[in-house]
Recover the amino acids of this structure.
């Protein structure tokens, strides 16, 4: 297995750019990353995207983005794993380089969710559930997460206040990120008193519907320093799946796919949770951030909310989390999110992020934990 | 780059199984291939699929199929490249093994197209076109292919009769394939006189709307003989893209993506077209089979239809094509087709197909040539 390095990163501001199409934001992001790597050489493109067929009636995104990006007759295809699409696309891109099939690969995650109106986006997102056993009963993605949060609060005697530390932390961090959708702090009271979406989740516990694209440029260890003095290496990279429906699981308060992907990624990296300096967690719903801390091995089961409430996930705490706003404040354009996380982690590691660390971990969840990718990035040994 | 071998193949009969869901046919196919490899060991699953989000309101197929197939917390995701999804998924699977990240990988292509009614399937398939510049004008996938065929006939002074040799050949071959959707011969008169879909394409020039799933099991050279005495090796494997819209191309009578993918695959295989003994061409429309012969380098531009009409694509001819019915008679469940081609080629090479050859090539087209994969398979050297 060849070592793989990130030598360029780029993204677009997350938001509701109704004047821009999917292809435009994807191409903007791709070229931001190529410019950052100082090259126009790329021989492979992997696109992370969940539902362009439903959101904008367009498939074939590999061809579309290579075409409108002027990348020529390169290799390109799309990878899908629900809201974990971009994390899975990242792994596909890493394998493309590690295999020797490709030399310089761009991974671009993109989603355009705001071109549909009414409850269409909710209906499309429900395609990440098990249609025949979950969505058919009318349960939405928010509904499933609400049930998980209720069960978690019951099992571990944890309060909403503690769990809601996550969105407060993400919003505080998002202020410093020019690409974040929401750049204002919120208080715990704001979270608790904002409109209820699905009890106990209020609107401020939930990441927004939005558009965005993020890209990374990957190459081999041998070539990395042709492009940059600060390559960031992939120490571990894993995608694992679980039952698609939550009703088929022994427990809903932890995610077997996160645990399996973390075990795999830590083994590849020859590291343990105590060695990790920052975490980009998939806080699409506040409860997911809490459970992520536990499943990745940073705290024991049931202790994630207290860890957060004690300030340990803040910048300056034991494990700064979601340092550029997380899914909640930066935004969660579903098929792009996993690459936004990698971009932010890479910046923190190479020296132009909001914190300065030697390594970090990213966790990207598809569905209610049916697909989870975990990546560990770090500086050269 | 590690050598990669196919050690198991499987598929479901192509047809309109309204009593079976996508997950059922995908799992049937996956286990057919695992049974064929004599194992239940698999640590990676790549799903080829174009439009499950639109056809059956279901994303997250990697998780869904691993879950209902009982494969556990393995790595899994979906790959999309329009009607070339399965060919692209095959390459992703090959890279997963070649990279050293995975040891035994299943690639399953699947599509369920017959659960929608009326013209919905046509509308969904149009998502493989450039929505903003082609589909918006009302042109369908069939319409685009009809325009390409008209131009080809004009440029090369070729008749419909010669081009329609392709469906006649595929139907003749489909008779012997128990998994083919259409197992009856048709005459040239039947093609010419069947109802017109988009002038000059009649219904018998076009592959059907249908359901199906096909799978292959991949592993390393080192492990291949643990599973089978007749491993089939991947000699070359390439995916290339072109402009998504046909209006942006210098010519519409040949496909730059096929040429680029063929050049790449032949270079990897250290082979030339004259070395190839059989071809699984993407004959979704009769004209695509003809152009495929030319772009892959088997005949000069404009000579494909005559080559076919002279009997050279028949079993016993210079280059037997689509020996198990091709897309036209076996059927074209879009996101599964590329793996059906690999399954059929592998059987012909390892000794349980309808012909006995040492090697062969498969070409899978997405859109109107916007994504093309080319794979060259062969026996061990």
């Amino acid at each position: 297995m060849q070592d793989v390095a990130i030598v360029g990163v780029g993204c677009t501001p997350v938001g509701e750019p109704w004047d821009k199409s999917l292809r435009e934001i994807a191409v903007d992001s791709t070229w931001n990353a190529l410019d950052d790597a100082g090259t126009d050489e790329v021989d492979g493109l992997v696109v992370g995207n969940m539902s362009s067929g439903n959101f904008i009636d367009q498939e074939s995104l590999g061809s579309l983005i290579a075409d409108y990006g002027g990348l020529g007759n390169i290799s390109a295809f799309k990878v899908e794993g629900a809201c974990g699409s971009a994390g899975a696309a990242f792994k596909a891109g890493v394998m493309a380089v590690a295999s020797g099939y490709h030399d310089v690969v761009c991974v671009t995650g993109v989603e355009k969710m705001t071109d549909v109106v009414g409850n269409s986006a909710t209906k499309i997102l429900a395609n990440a559930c098990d249609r025949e056993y979950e969505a058919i009963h009318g349960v939405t993605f928010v509904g499933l997460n609400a049930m998980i949060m209720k069960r978690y609060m019951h099992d571990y005697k944890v309060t909403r206040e503690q769990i809601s530390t996550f969105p407060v932390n993400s919003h505080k961090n998002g202020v410093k990120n020019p690409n974040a959708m929401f750049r204002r702090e919120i208080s715990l009271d704001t979270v608790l008193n904002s409109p209820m979406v699905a009890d106990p989740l209020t609107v401020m516990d939930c990441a927004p519907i939005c558009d965005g694209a993020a890209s990374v440029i990957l190459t081999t260890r041998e070539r990395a320093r042709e492009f940059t003095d600060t390559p960031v290496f992939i120490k571990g990279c894993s995608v694992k799946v679980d039952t698609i429906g939550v009703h088929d699981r022994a427990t809903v308060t932890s995610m077997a796919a996160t645990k399996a992907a973390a075990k795999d990624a830590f083994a590849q990296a020859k590291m343990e949770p105590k060695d990790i300096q920052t975490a980009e967690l998939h806080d699409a719903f506040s409860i997911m951030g809490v459970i992520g801390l536990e499943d990745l091995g940073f705290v024991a089961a049931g202790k994630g909310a207290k860890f957060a409430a004690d300030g340990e996930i803040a910048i300056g705490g034991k494990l700064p989390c979601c340092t550029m706003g997380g899914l909640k404040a930066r935004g969660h354009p579903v098929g792009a999110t996993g690459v936004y996380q990698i971009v932010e982690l890479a910046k923190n590691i190479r020296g132009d992020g909001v914190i300065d660390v030697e390594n970090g971990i990213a966790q990207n969840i598809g569905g209610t934990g049916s697909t989870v990718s975990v990546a560990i990035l770090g500086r050269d040994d």
User: Anything to note?
Assistant: Chain B has two domains: 4-118+210-231, 120-205+233-378. Chain B has a mean pLDDT of 97. The two ends of chain B are 17 Å apart (CA to CA). The longest helix of chain B spans residues 22-37.
